[in-house]
């Protein structure tokens, strides 16, 4: 019985080594996106377990070298029939006591552990792929956001530039309009000033001419009066000088008159004055 148990442990070690040799290439695969199958996401855990590289059930006939055991029994002194019966009994005992439990429990547990390990590896691989794809999508979205921000800044700069150019054009148009208005206003002011100057000059010249005419008329009138006065004085002087000359040249005559009444005297004086005129 101890030999059977030791033999069972050797079989377990053999199967475990075979399991490790079959699992390690799968476990050592790199977590790359291109290593993931195309239909990996659609597979369920039960499907993954059912598609695993499971261990096949075995029997004692497949694991024990019966010929070697038979020869050893013969060398130990057993007869051929005894050796055959012992080997059959050993195989039956191993199948009933060990390989039945081995096939029902250990292989299933090993298969479940293997599939669990494969599922965990696939889950890790899937998480890594999701993380990588998420980071790639996040980086792509960040790049798009940066591009959008850059485009927004460029559009904002272009809009500001267009707005500044529009303001410049509007300011130039307003400046030209104000310049034209100022030019027209300046011309109108100059025309108004010239008109005022002309009116003022005309009025001043008219007033001066009227004053000059008045002054000329007054001067002429004063001159005429002065000339008339001078002529009158000259004529008066001439008449007086003639009268005095006549009086000086006239001989002195003594006339005796009788005293006449006052009326006759007044008449004689009036005649003399008329003669003098």
Automatic annotation (TrEMBL):
Pfam families hit by this protein: CCDC90-like
Record's keyword annotation contains Hydrolase: no
Entry keyword Zinc: no
Alphabetic keyword roster: Coiled coil, Membrane, Mitochondrion, Transmembrane, Transmembrane helix
GO CC annotations on file: membrane; mitochondrion
Transmembrane region(s): none
Top-rank taxon: Eukaryota
Subcellular location: Membrane; Mitochondrion
The protein, known as: LAQU0S06e01596g1_1
